[in-house]
């Protein structure tokens, strides 16, 4: 419905209502309705003009208002309101309207309310209402506002506000129109008395506001006709105007002048008078507006107000004296604080305040005073605010809180039991504090007002104000200030430093530096404001920090705690952004104290886990509490502080500079609490979540318990998340600029240095080889941050650890930035920590680990291009060098130092393993590092010939331990092992090394070769040096580089040479093998000059050096070559080394002798030196070195065979030199053999005894030498040299002092083999040589019988005293005899036609040799141990018989060419052999079986047969002396004895022995003594062992005296003549003894053998046929002369003599000789012996070819073809007598 329709309705109502009482009104109303109905639009338009219709339309309205009828008035006012809304009222009617409403004002409430509504419509719809009219309209409102009816008053007040606002709005519109029409302006008098032309609206606004100010000050208004207005309402209107139109005021000086002259004094007066809550409330609100909107325009007034407010805040009032006139009520402070909170919330205002007041000189320090006042206010009642238990940490004692200021640097003085008690009760005490503190403290819920005091305009008195409310306001003020700083600075900082335009290629700035305001445009407002903020923070931070640090430690709610913590963060960030290092550092320091309370650390250091739950609950049970015991730790709020600390540090990372130190120190402590100790303390902790303690009741609310999301600062504050945040801070180091990163690293190093230094200084760290023993430091010593130094030193350093992680994140800086950025600082610090001997071991090792990780990563990530590669590599190696190589020799070799070096070496190994192939520099450093590990060996025993002094040979006996340069500690061994692994890597890529680097490599390898670890030394000497040699040789192929690399190779050989005399056998062996393997492999490519160097600088010095060692030990007492000790002794090891050296040298020289060495100019000298070395080795060293030395020589000599014709002179010279040495060595052998016969000779040097092996080697050298000689000379050596050769060989063969004899029974020993081979090599065609060989071989064959001996075992206590044991070795020469005896036969058969072997006594020597085993017979040694070889005597007998058979024929053939002396000698030896064979002791056969005995006798028959067949025919040679032939007869006489001779009956075992052993002719006269016929015996006698053989000898004796053959008749006759006396004596003795014994025995029978013997003799006598005249010749003075022919019978003799002479010439003359005894036998009266015998079927004289083996051994054996007959002695004797009678012609 339109307003016109409403107007019509209103008029109709008016007409209806006034119909009866006021008809005139009805009529007027109807008229108006008619006008409206007739033409509504026209009517409406005419209403706005002063026309007649307008009067008609308004008339009913005015008439109605004039009535006193309330209803009519109300309708009329409603209609008027409609008209005004339709703007249907002319301007001229406005005054009437105002007057009408003024008149109707006294009506009821509804009328008054209608009036107010109408006034609003009127003034708002008629802007042209100005001046007095406006004043009257406003006066209506003021009057109604003063109504006691609340609704009217409040409505009027609201209407007034609306109208006043409209007035100022019109002024705003007027200003916008900017009309230049001056006609509308009117003068207005200003408060200062001046005038100003103002527009209508401006003047209205000026007048209204001026009157409001005057009314508020109880002054008379100028514009309003009002006597009185409530000050509170006036102030409210003023506030409304200022609130909405402050911009208008700032534009118009007249309005500002009102503020300055009227309002400000008014407010000051009001605030200075007695305080009434409503008035003061409104005044402070206006003050806030003035400060907020007009502080610039009203600078002085604002300053006054601010200082007033600050003073109000600072005044501490007592609530009990509120009514006292001199004091301010508490609510005034609250109001002031609420206003100040608003001021502080306006950051720009605060900045302006500083700029206008504090920044001016002189000027009021408004801002400074404000924050000081806030600080004082906050701290005035600490008991009210309480103490935050959380801020002190959890699990600590608070007993000392009241006495100790918050943030004190002093921790708990805990010690011993007190410390444990305090720690155990810590959580309980914390619980008590929490309960007591509940209900106090600050929180928005409990401390704030639901409606702030300054907004409570409806209150006549101050509302109840919580006691802590003002402190909450103070906190909020401080928070607002801090946030204001940050909200302004932060965005500008970001835009300037981070988001600024970047040049091409410029990286994104992720960690900007602080703002440098001097670089910004100074006229830029932003710069100016940044400067203001900087000044504010710079001047106000102490108070702000003090306030914040106090507030945060109070019992705050989580919300307030977050606000305060955010303020901390904001203020810190602002200080950092604006480069205010001092406040920033102070804030960080404060934050760190709250993040890591000192008591937590100190309590944690002394925390002791409660032994039992019962102990821990005893105290809490007494208090009725059940809080569980916790280990000291950080609360949520501590962690939140720590989180903020980390966050701010991260934000300001690019500008912290030296301030990093404090931050890092705090992070170190946090890491310690959260990470290290917390994990230890929580092992057996009963709490599941010790790091999230329960918050106190004051900090808890139902809203916080899950209903409201927690603030981000209180989220993720578990220890893991916080530690992750800390880690992110360190991770962010990669975003720092280089300078900032340098500061960061420097601070980290400084922190680490201080921490390490504090753990070192003032403490004595006793370090042993195995462990560290730290002495606890006094717990009262404090860290800079207030944290105690731990009672027990921390295992590792935070700074060192983090330095390592930061370096890993920023390794690109280490590589590609200048070393000053981070490299120098980092590495220098780590090296310093490592070198600090007083620091704990764990920290030093940690520093080493970090450094090594850095050094490992950098080369791996280094680009391989550009010059940077070499620079960085050098940088890395220089640092590693300082770690590995001690700074000085004074650095003790403690276990820690060794470990640090070990880690450095491992790092070097890793670097080489990953990046060694990329290294272009630094090899010298690498080798020096590796070499520094090698401890120098003791004065090298054999470095070179020049280094050996004669004094060293006179040392006392060496200890068997390692040399002085070696140590046995495990740490050093580990170092060497690790370093050696690196060296192996280097050697794997040795091809990349330059010659100079190779030289260092070789030197280093040599050092490792001298180390204590044998495996390492061996590998260095044997493997690595070899690989280097291989590499060098590969590079020698380049002709240009050949001289340099050849010299380098010689350097390598010299280094290896130094290792060849190492104290350890294995190393020596490896070095020697390497040395000669290299020469062997590359010798063919070496030049003669290089070979010359190899010979004179390598080979001979090696032999010299090793020889000194071997001879040094050889001269020491006790250096015996004992079989259980020698292999373990150092002496033996040295010998083995020299043996290897000799073998290697032999191989090298033999391989290159012809092609290289013999072509050297110095060959002759070198050969002489070489042979001399071998000779000296044999003569001066122990004998176990002789074989390898001689083998070496032999091998080299053999190589001479490959020389061509041009070298034959050198060959001749060479073998002559060798033979001379061999001859000398042979002399030593011969001397050693003779020493056996001279006990005083060489007995003090048993080690000089030649071994069999060395003798074999010596013979081999001789054979090789002879081979070369014979090849070159094409003829055999002269006899003189051969004699010397055989002399040496004989000495070798018979050498008695060896200790290593081999069995020589079943087979030849090696020495015997080579000696025989050497003899076999001799060419026997030269004169005298066969004799020489046969003589010596003959002598060899006797060794088994003459020279066999037991090998002496030296006594351990007395080497010269041999010990005889059952297990002794024996040198038997048996196999040699078995070999030589047939060999002699062969040689004889080969040279039997050579006269010289007969003439020079050779054959005599041969027979003499054979005679020995034949004589010994069964006493010869066994021919074999395991085989069935024939006995030696049988071999000798067989060989002898072969030779003697031919020799007698040869001698006969040679005839007179052989001298008589030689013939006699030969026959003497032959007879001697037969004597030995026939008369040998055969007692041993008695134990044989009968078959064996028979076989043995049958073998001996060969001797008898040979005598009969081969010798007897030639024995009668005229040059054979008579006594030799007679000697043979005596031998047969002795051999034919059946019983041992009577003179030996008393000792039956000895006669044969004596006889057999008799070898000289002087005993011949005693062999055939006559038996006295008058002596008889009944003793049975001792029968010889072989009865049959005796009869064979008897047979042979009869045979050689018988005429049985016609060949060699003359010779046989001579033999018969010389032997017949012996035969007659033998037969006569048998018969005489029988006759003598028979007389004594009577009828007692004779033994069988006696009877057989008697019968045998009688039968043989009967059968014997002599040569005619044999007996005569035998009995003559010269049997030989008359054997063949006798002189004629001398007839002049007497008959008896004549008969006797004739009978002696008879063939049976022997019977005549036995005549008397035959007569005795024939006349024996008793029964004589008898037996059955086999008689031959042929007559005796025809049995010419009878042989000795046809004789029957026993009587009774039937002869083949003969007859058996019984014979007896008496009959046979009578037959003999008959034959004699016949011969004499008597019968």
Automatic annotation (TrEMBL):
Transmembrane segments: none
Sequence ranges assigned to domain Mon2/Sec7/BIG1-like dimerisation and cyclophilin-binding in this UniProt record: 4-175
Bias (Polar residues) ranges: 1543-1559
Gene Ontology CC annotation, any one: Golgi apparatus
Residues annotated as domain Mon2 C-terminal: 1042-1206, 1371-1542
Keyword Transport: yes
Protein name per Swiss-Prot or TrEMBL: Protein MON2 homolog
């Amino acid at each position: 419905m339109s307003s016109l329709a409403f107007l019509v309705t209103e008029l109709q109502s008016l007409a209806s209502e006034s119909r009866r009482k006021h008809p005139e009104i009805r009529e007027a109303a109807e008229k108006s309705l008619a006008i409206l109905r007739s033409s509504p639009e026209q009517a409406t338009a005419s209403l706005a003009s002063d026309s007649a219709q307008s009067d008609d339309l308004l008339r009913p309205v005015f008439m109605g208002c004039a009535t006193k009828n309330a209803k009519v008035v109300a309708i009329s006012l409603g209609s008027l309101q409609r008209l005004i809304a339709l703007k249907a009222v002319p301007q001229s009617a406005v005054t009437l309207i105002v007057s009408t409403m003024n008149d109707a004002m006294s009506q009821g409430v509804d009328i008054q309310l209608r009036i107010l509504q109408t006034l609003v419509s009127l003034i708002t719809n008629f802007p042209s209402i100005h001046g007095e009219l406006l004043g009257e309209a406003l006066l209506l409102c003021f009057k109604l506002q003063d109504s006691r009816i609340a609704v009217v008053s409040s409505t009027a007040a609201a209407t007034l506000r609306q109208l006043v606002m409209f007035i100022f709005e019109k002024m705003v519109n007027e200003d916008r129109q900017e009309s230049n029409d001056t006609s509308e302006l009117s003068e207005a008098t200003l408060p200062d008395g001046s005038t100003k032309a103002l527009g209508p609206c401006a003047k209205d606004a000026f007048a209204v506001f001026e009157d409001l100010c005057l009314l508020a000050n109880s002054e008379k208004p100028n514009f309003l006709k009002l006597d009185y207005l409530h000050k509170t309402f006036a102030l409210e209107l003023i506030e409304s105007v200022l609130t909405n139109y402050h911009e208008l005021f700032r534009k118009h000086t007249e309005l500002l002048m009102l503020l300055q002259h009227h309002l400000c004094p008014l407010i000051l007066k009001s605030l200075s008078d007695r305080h009434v809550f409503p008035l003061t409330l409104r005044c402070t609100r206006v003050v806030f507006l003035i400060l907020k909107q007009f502080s610039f325009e009203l600078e002085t007034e604002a300053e006054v107000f601010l200082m007033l407010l600050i003073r109000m805040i600072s005044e501490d009032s007592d609530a009990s004296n509120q009514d006292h006139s001199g004091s301010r009520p508490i609510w005034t402070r609250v109001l002031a604080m609420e206003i100040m909170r608003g001021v502080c919330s306006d950051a720009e205002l605060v900045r302006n305040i500083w700029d206008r007041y504090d920044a001016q000189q002189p000027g009021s320090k408004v801002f400074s005073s404000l924050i000081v006042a806030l600080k004082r206010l906050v701290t005035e009642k600490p008991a009210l605010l309480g103490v935050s238990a959380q801020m002190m940490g959890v699990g600590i004692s608070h007993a000392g809180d009241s006495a100790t200021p918050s943030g004190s640097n002093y921790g708990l003085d805990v010690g011993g039991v007190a410390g444990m008690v305090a720690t155990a009760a810590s959580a309980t005490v914390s619980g008590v504090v929490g309960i007591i503190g509940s209900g106090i403290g600050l929180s928005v819920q409990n401390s704030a007002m639901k409606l702030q005091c300054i907004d409570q305009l409806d209150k006549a008195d101050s509302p109840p104000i919580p006691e802590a409310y003002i402190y909450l306001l103070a906190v909020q003020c401080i928070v607002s200030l801090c946030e204001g700083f940050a909200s302004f600075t932060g965005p500008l900082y970001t835009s300037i430093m981070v988001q600024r335009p970047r040049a091409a290629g410029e990286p994104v700035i992720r960690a900007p530096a602080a703002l440098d305001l001097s670089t910004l445009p100074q006229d830029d407002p932003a710069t100016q404001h940044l400067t203001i903020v900087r000044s504010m923070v710079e001047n106000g931070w102490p108070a702000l920090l003090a306030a914040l640090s106090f507030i945060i430690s109070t019992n705050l709610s989580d919300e307030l705690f977050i606000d305060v913590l955010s303020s901390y963060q904001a203020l810190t960030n602002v200080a950092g952004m604006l480069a205010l290092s001092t406040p920033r550092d102070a804030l960080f320091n404060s934050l760190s104290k709250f993040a890591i309370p000192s008591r937590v650390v100190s309590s944690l250091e002394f925390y002791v886990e409660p032994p039992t739950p019962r102990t821990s609950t005893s105290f809490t049970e007494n208090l009725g509490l059940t809080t569980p015991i916790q280990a000291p730790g950080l609360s949520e709020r501590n962690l939140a502080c720590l989180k903020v600390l980390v966050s701010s540090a991260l934000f300001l990372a690019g500008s912290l500079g030296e301030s990093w130190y404090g931050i890092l120190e705090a992070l170190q402590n946090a890491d310690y609490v959260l990470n290290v100790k917390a994990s230890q303390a929580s092992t057996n902790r009963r709490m599941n979540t010790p790091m999230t303690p329960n918050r106190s009741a004051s900090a808890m609310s139902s809203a916080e318990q899950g209903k409201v999301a927690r603030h981000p600062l209180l989220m993720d504050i578990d220890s893991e998340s916080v530690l992750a945040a800390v880690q992110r801070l360190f991770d962010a180091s990669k975003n720092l600029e280089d300078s900032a990163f340098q500061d960061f690293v420097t601070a980290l190093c400084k922190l680490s240095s201080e921490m390490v230094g504090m753990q070192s200084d003032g403490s004595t760290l006793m370090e042993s080889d195995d462990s560290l023993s730290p002495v606890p430091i006094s717990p009262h010593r404090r860290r800079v941050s207030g944290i105690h130094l731990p009672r027990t030193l921390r295992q590792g350093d935070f700074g060192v650890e983090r330095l390592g992680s930061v370096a890993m994140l920023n390794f690109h800086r280490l590589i590609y930035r200048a070393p000053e950025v981070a490299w120098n600082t980092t590495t220098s610090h780590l090296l310093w920590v490592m070198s600090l001997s007083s620091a704990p071991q764990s920290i030093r090792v940690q520093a080493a680990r970090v450094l090594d990780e850095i050094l490992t990563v950098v080369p791996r990530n280094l680009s391989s291009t550009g010059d940077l590669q070499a620079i960085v590599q050098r940088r890395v190696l220089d640092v590693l060098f300082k770690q590995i190589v001690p700074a000085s020799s004074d650095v003790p070799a403690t276990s820690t130092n060794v470990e640090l070096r070990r880690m450095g070496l491992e790092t070097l190994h890793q670097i080489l393993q990953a990046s060694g192939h990329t290294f272009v520099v630094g090899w010298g450093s690498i080798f020096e590092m590796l070499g520094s590990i090698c401890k120098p060996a003791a004065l090298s025993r054999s470095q070179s010939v020049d280094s050996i002094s004669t004094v060293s040979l006179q040392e006392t006996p060496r200890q068997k331990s390692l040399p002085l340069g070696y140590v046995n500690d495990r740490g050093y061994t580990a170092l060497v092992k690790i370093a050696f692994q690196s060296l192996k890597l280097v050697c794997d890529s040795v091809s990349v090394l330059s010659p100079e680097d190779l030289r260092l490599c070789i030197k280093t390898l040599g050092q490792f070769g001298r180390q204590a670890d044998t495996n390492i030394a061996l590998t260095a000497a044997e493997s690595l040096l070899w690989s280097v040699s291989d590499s060098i040789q590969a590079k020698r192929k380049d002709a240009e580089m050949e001289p340099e690399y050849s010299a380098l190779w010689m350097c390598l050989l010299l280094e290896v040479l130094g290792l060849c005399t190492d104290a350890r056998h294995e190393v020596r062996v490896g070095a020697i093998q390497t040395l000669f393997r290299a020469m062997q492999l590359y010798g063919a490519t070496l030049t003669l000059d290089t070979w010359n160097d190899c010979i004179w600088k390598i080979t001979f010095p090696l032999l010299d050096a090793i020889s000194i060692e071997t001879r040094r030990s050889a001269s020491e007492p006790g250096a015996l070559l004992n079989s259980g000790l020698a292999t373990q002794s150092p002496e033996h090891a040295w010998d083995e080394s020299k043996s290897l050296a000799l073998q290697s040298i032999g191989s090298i020289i033999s391989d290159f002798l012809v092609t290289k060495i013999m072509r050297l100019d110095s060959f002759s000298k070198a050969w002489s030196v070489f042979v001399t070395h071998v000779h000296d080795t044999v003569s001066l060293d122990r004998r176990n070195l002789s074989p390898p030395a001689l083998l070496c020589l032999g091998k080299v000599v053999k190589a001479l065979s490959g020389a061509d014709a041009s070298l034959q002179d050198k060959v001749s010279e060479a073998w002559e030199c060798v033979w001379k040495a061999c001859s000398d060595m042979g002399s030593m052998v011969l001397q050693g053999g003779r020493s056996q016969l001279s006990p005083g000779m060489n007995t003090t040097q048993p080690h000089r005894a030649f071994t069999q092996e060395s003798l074999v080697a010596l013979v081999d050298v001789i054979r090789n030498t002879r081979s070369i000689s014979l090849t070159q000379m094409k003829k055999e050596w002269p006899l003189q040299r051969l004699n010397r050769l055989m002399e040496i060989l004989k000495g070798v063969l018979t050498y008695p002092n060896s200790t290593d004899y081999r069995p020589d029974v079943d087979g030849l020993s090696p020495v015997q083999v080579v000696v025989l081979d050497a003899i076999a090599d001799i060419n026997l065609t030269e004169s005298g040589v066969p004799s020489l060989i046969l003589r010596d071989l003959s002598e060899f064959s006797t060794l088994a019988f003459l020279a066999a001996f037991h090998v002496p075992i030296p006594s351990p206590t007395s080497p010269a005293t041999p010990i005889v044991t059952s297990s002794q070795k024996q040198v038997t020469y048996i196999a040699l005899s078995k070999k030589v005896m047939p060999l002699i036969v062969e040689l004889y058969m080969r040279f039997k036609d050579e006269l010289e072997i007969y003439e020079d006594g050779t054959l005599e020597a041969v027979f003499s040799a054979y005679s020995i085993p034949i004589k010994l017979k069964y006493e010869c040694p066994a021919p074999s141990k395991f085989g069935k070889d024939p006995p030696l005597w049988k071999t000798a007998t067989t060989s002898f018989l072969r030779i003697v058979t031919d020799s007698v024929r040869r001698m006969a053939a040679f005839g007179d060419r052989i001298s008589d002396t030689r013939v006699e000698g030969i026959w003497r030896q032959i007879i001697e052999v037969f004597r030995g064979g026939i008369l040998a002791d055969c007692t041993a056969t008695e134990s044989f079986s009968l078959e064996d005995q028979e076989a043995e006798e049958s073998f001996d028959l060969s001797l008898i047969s040979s005598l009969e067949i081969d010798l007897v025919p030639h024995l009668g040679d005229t040059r054979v002396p008579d006594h030799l032939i007679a000697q043979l007869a005596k031998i047969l006489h002795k051999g034919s004895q059946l019983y041992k001779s009577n003179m030996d009956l008393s000792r039956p075992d000895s006669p044969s022995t004596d006889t057999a052993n008799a070898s000289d002719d002087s005993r011949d006269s005693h062999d055939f003594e006559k038996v006295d016929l008058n002596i008889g015996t009944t003793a049975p006698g001792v029968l010889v062992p072989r009865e049959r053989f005796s009869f064979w000898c008897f047979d042979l004796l009869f045979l050689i005296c018988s005429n049985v053959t016609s060949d060699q008749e003359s010779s046989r006759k001579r033999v018969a003549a010389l032997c017949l006396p012996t035969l007659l004596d033998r037969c006569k003795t048998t018969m005489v003894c029988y006759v003598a014994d028979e007389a004594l025995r009577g009828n007692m029978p004779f033994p069988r053998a006696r009877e057989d013997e008697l019968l045998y003799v009688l039968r043989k006598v009967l059968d014997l046929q002599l040569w005619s005249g044999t007996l005569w010749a035998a009995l003559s003075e010269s049997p030989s002369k008359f054997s063949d022919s006798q002189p004629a019978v001398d007839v002049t003799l007497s008959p008896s003599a004549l008969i006797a002479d004739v009978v002696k010439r008879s063939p049976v003359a022997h019977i005549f000789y036995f005549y008397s005894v035959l007569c005795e036998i024939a006349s024996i009266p008793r029964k004589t012996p008898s037996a059955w015998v086999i008689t031959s079927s042929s007559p005796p004289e025809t049995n010419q070819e009878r042989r000795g083996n046809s004789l029957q051994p026993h009587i009774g054996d039937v002869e083949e073809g003969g007859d058996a007959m019984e014979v007896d002695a008496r009959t046979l004797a009578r037959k003999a007598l008959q034959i004699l009678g016949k011969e004499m012609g008597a019968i």
